[in-house]
Amino acid sequence: KNEVEQSPQNLTAQEGEFITINCSYSVGISALHWLQQHPGGGIVSLFMLSSGKKKHGRLIATINIQEKHSSLHITASHPRDSAVYICAVRSARDGGSQGNLIFGKGTKLSVKP
Amino acid sequence: KAGVTQTPRYLIKTRGQQVTLSCSPISGHRSVSWYQQTPGQGLQFLFEYFSETQRNKGNFPGRFSGRQFSNSRSEMNVSTLELGDSALYLCASSLFFRVLPSPLHFGNGTRLTVT
N or C, which terminus of chain A has less Cβ within 10 Å? Predict the structure, then answer.
C-alpha cells in the first residue's frame, strides 16, 4: 500500500462544476503540498498545509491531521483547470526535522466546456 | 525575480554513459531538492540539499548522486546510465529547510532519454 493515496485517479467534469480531489496518507507529516502539473511538465505549488484550511481564488485546500486526510476543492471549474493535481507529504523525522517528500500518483482532471 | 532554472532542457544519452544536470535556485533560496518523474512511477524524491549538505535521500541506487555549491546551485549526476533512467528530472528550491516547511518552487525540468 502506498504511503500517499489519491482519489480519483481520473476525473472529467463539466465547466462550472464543483470538484473534490482527496489525499490520504499513512505517515506522520510536517506539511502537505498540493501541486498542479500542466502538459509539458511544469509544476506549480498550489498550497502548503500544516493544519486547517487555505483558500486561493477558486481553490480551497483542507487538511485533517487526526484523520490523515486532505482535500483539494475547485469551485466553478474551468477548462484551464485541466491538469494533473498531485498531493505530496513531507514526512516528519524524530527530533522535528523534515524528512523526505512522498508523492501521490496524481489525479488527472479534465474540464469540458 | 528569476525562477528556478534547470539546464539542459533536453538530453539524449547512450546506455553506460554518465550525465550531469544543473539547477539554479531562486535567489535567496538555500534548499534544493531533486525528483525523478516517469509515467510508471510518477514523481519520486531523489535527494535534498541545504547549506551544501545532503539532508535527505530517497530510495535510489548509488549511481544517482548530487551536490550543492556555496552559491546554492546544485548538480545531480547519474553514472552508468540505464534505459530505465529515461525520465523528467525536476528540481525545486525553497527558502528554508530545518526551521519550518517551505513552499516548493519547481524548475521546468530536464528530459533525459537514454538509448
Answer: N
